[in-house]
Amino acid sequence: MQIxxxxxxxxxSNDQETLMExxxxxxxxxxxxxxxxxxxxxxKVRMIGNVSPPSNSxxxxxxxxxxxxxxxxxxxxxxEEGMVIELNVDESDDRKVSAQMRMKTTTLDPEIExxxxxxxxxxxxxERGDCDRVVDALNAATGRxxxxxxxxxxxxxxxxxxxxxxxxxxxxSENKILEIEAGDTTNRLFGVAVDVGTTSVAVAxxxxxxxxxxxxxxxxxxxxxxxxxxxxxxxxxxESHENAIALRVAISSTINHLLEKIATQTDVQQNEIYKMTxxxxxxxHHLFLGLDVSHLSVSPFVSVCNRPLEFSxxxxxxxxxxxxxxxxxxxxxxxxxxxxxxxxxxxxxxxGRGNHLLIDLGTxxxxxxxxxxxxxxxxxxAGPAFEGANLAHGMRAKQGAIEGVRFxxxxxxxxxxxxxxxxxxCGSGLIEAIDEMRRTGVINKQGTIVDPxxxxxIAPELLKRIRVGKKxxxxxxxxxxxxxxxxxxxxxxxxxxxxAKGAVCAxxxxxxxxxxxxxxxxxxxxxxxxxxxxxxxxNILNIGLVPDIKPEKIKTxxxxxxxxxILALMDRQKLAMSQDLYSKISHxxxxxxxxxxxxxxxxxxxxxxxx
Length: 611
Ligand code: FES
Known about the structure:
By secondary structure, the protein is an alpha/beta fold.
C-alpha cells in the first residue's frame, strides 16, 4: 500500500504493520514512549482526507478537537491505500545543532593526514612493483615507514597510479595507509564526532585541515521505537537475539541517515570522512557494538568493556570511508559511560585545582566530582522528564515548545522556540514554569498544586488557571492552541520532575558526603547537556536542582559530551587524556546505597538545596 507523508514523501507499507511501524521502518520519527502499546498517547499524527475511525486509545488520549482535526495515534492505525499523513517533525531548529555550531576549537592534531606523492614511473631499469614505489615515495615524503598495505589498497594502486600521471594522495594514520586517491586531494580531509544519546543522536562534520565545524545534524535515536530509556532497551535486547540486532541496526541506521543528511547539505562526500569519534552512555556503546547488555542492569552491574575501543567503518557498517578509524571514548562504569568521559574532556576546567562538580543532565544523569584528593562518578536515573517526555504536553526542544515562562499579575507569558504558537513544553520550560509556580504560590514546596478555593494570596489571573484535569489538578500555561488543546502542567507532570530532581540531588549529596566536603567547599558546579544550556541559574537554585552556592560559581556548558567527542576528533592529546582518565575515576554505585536513599525523599522538595 502506498501512503503519502506531506509534503512529498511516498512510503510503501507492508501488510499487517501499523502506521507507526511503517514510519519507523522508513526512519520517520514519531515519539513512541510505550513502544506501540497505545498507552503513552505520544505517537500522534494527523490524517488528511479519509480519517480512520478513532480507536479506544485515540479517544482516551486525544481531545475532541484533535479527533475532529484528524489526529490519531499512529500505533493504532492500519495503513490504507492513498492515506495522507502530516507529521509534526521539524529538526531544523534543534538545539543540539545550534549549540555545537557556536563552538570554537583550538588545537588541531587529528592523527590522520593526507600526503601527496609523485612516485617515479616504472622503466626496464626500475621494475619495482606499483605498491613498492608508492610505499617508497610515502616513506621518503613523511620520514615514516608504511610497510603494511592491505588488500583493499593493493587492489586499487595500479589504477590510481595511472589515473593522474603517477601522482596520488595517500590518507595515512600512524603507520597505516587508509586510502589512496588519484591526483592531489590533500585539501579534502574530514571527520565526524558522534554523540549517541538515549533520546537523540548528533553528528558534527569537521574539516580536519582547518579545524572548523562544517555542519551539525541531530535526530531522534531510532532506538526510541523500542523503549524510552536505557533500562527498557536493555530489557528489550535481552528478550531475543533478533531484538538485540534490531537495536544495533537502529543506531547505525540513525548515524548513517545523519551522515547522508550532512553530505547532501555540504560538498563533502561520505567517502572523504576518514575518522569518527563516538561518545555515548555504556548501554548505547554496547548496543551500537552488538555487545551483551544482560549484565549491565543486574548487580554487580558489569559491562563487557570499559576500555577505549577502535574499529573500522567497515566493521561497524558505517557509510563513510571503509578504512575510517572509529574511536570510542572509554566508559567509566555500567551507567557512567563515554558520554561522561566526553563531558569531562569537553569541560576540562573541572579538572583544575579545587573541588568541582559536573552534572550531565539527560534521560540518565551522570555526576562527576573532582576534589584535590579524588575523582568519583555516579549515575542516577533522572528519567525522560528533562527531555520533555512523559509529560502530558511534553515535547523535545524544537519549534513550538515553550522554553521559558514568566508569571505576572495579568497571567502567563510564554517564550516559545521559533516564536510560534505553543504546542507543548520542553525541559527548560518545565523547570522555569515550576519555579514560577513555586514563587507565586501556585504550588507549595512539596510540589502540590494548591486548592484555588482556599487561596487568597495568588493573583486572580493565575488562580483561574488552576483546574481539575483528567484525574488531578493542572495549571494552564497556554490556552487553546491550533492543535485543539491547552498546554498544561498537571500534578503528575510536576511529580515527574520532582522524581528526576530528587534523584539528581540525592546523588550530589551522596558524592559530597563520600568526598568528605560540603557544598560551601565547591569551587564550581558545571551543568552539561543540551537542555542545561537553556536553564537559568536562578531557577535551578530556587528549586534546588543544584547545591545552594553563589550563582557565579554555577555555569552551563551545553552538550559537553559532544564537545568532548569533537575535541577528541581534532586533537589526539584529548583522546589520550580520556584514555588515561577512565581507570582513575572511581565509580559510586547508588543502587542500594543507604546514603542515597536517605537523601532521596527530602531532595524532592522544591526549595534551595542545603547540606
Ligand atoms: S500510544 Fe502509540 S506509541 Fe504510545
